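The authors assume throughout that readers already know how a fold can be written as discrete tokens. What matters is that the chain and its backbone geometry are given together, residue for residue. A single example would do more here than another paragraph of explanation. For illustration, here is how one protein appears when written out as sequence plus structure tokens.
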Amino acid sequence: MQITIPKDYDPVLSVRETQEAIKYIRDTFQKELGRELSLSRISAPLFVERSSGLNDDLNGSEEPVSFTMKEMSNEPIEVVHSLAKWKRMALKKYGFHVNEGLYTNMNAIRKDEELDNLHSAYVDQWDWEKVIDVSQRNVQTLKKHVEQIFKVIKHMEHEVWYKYPQAVNRLPETIHFVTSQQLLDIYPDLSPRERENAITKELGCVFVMKIGQRLSNGEKHDGRAPDYDDWELNGDILFWYEPLQQALEISSMGIRVDENSLHEQLEIEGCLERETLPFHQAILNRELPYTIGGGIGQSRLCMLLLKKAHIGEVQASLWPQEMIEICEENNIHLL
């Protein structure tokens, strides 16, 4: 367990006021996101069949919560880590066309998460996915969508300011782009997390691109599953977060694998056996649309806009008793 306590922390809003602000932010943001990116709201599952291959493997070491159902006792069921793969299947199933997309509320349990100010066992985010033409599988398309999401976040800053001027966090005016290799070249003596902190502190907001591949030092900037993002066309949106003196990741997103990058990345990670799974077969056989998509943390966004010290102030989850007591002693009221 790790916990950072900002000096003389003041939550500004009461717990009830915070709850009202959370609802306002979530209701408003999803409508503006859908309008800006041409996305339609759909419903999504909380769990999937293990044999479908649809669950997100994250870094490959996290174990999903699993169970069996009375009427399907021979089929292991897994609570989703995210909907990265399911969304692409849904776009085909529901007949979405190029430049149309979907968004949904994604709720997940990540029981192996290391808990701290920013990480919870409960994950809530807006998952979105959009159909693109094969000719749009390039960095220009990626940057365009990053800038659109940044625009909506900036507009939310102004919306929150109107209702809660005493609590709103002032955000930078621009988002900057940098690759994971460029970060290593700039800060060769720092760890990946230290590099992110250094660049976001300097620039305010950055999109770190090309995550998952090995860098010139033989290491990865961060882990990425090999079967949804194209490692050449993905990245994370990071804001410098003054209350905790560190980078705050708001979104992980990217252009998804095609038949070539899927095979290459599975081969690199030594898991070509996944090519026999239904989802992977559909990509290899070009039966699924080419897409771009990602996740935007709902609680993370509320934290950012309301300048909260702990994600537990904007979501209801479970925390070690020691963390609860330390937070309460320092005016951090966990829901």
Q: What stands out?
A: The two ends are 18 Å apart (CA to CA). The CA atoms of residues 282 and 288 lie 6 Å apart. The longest helix spans residues 139-163.
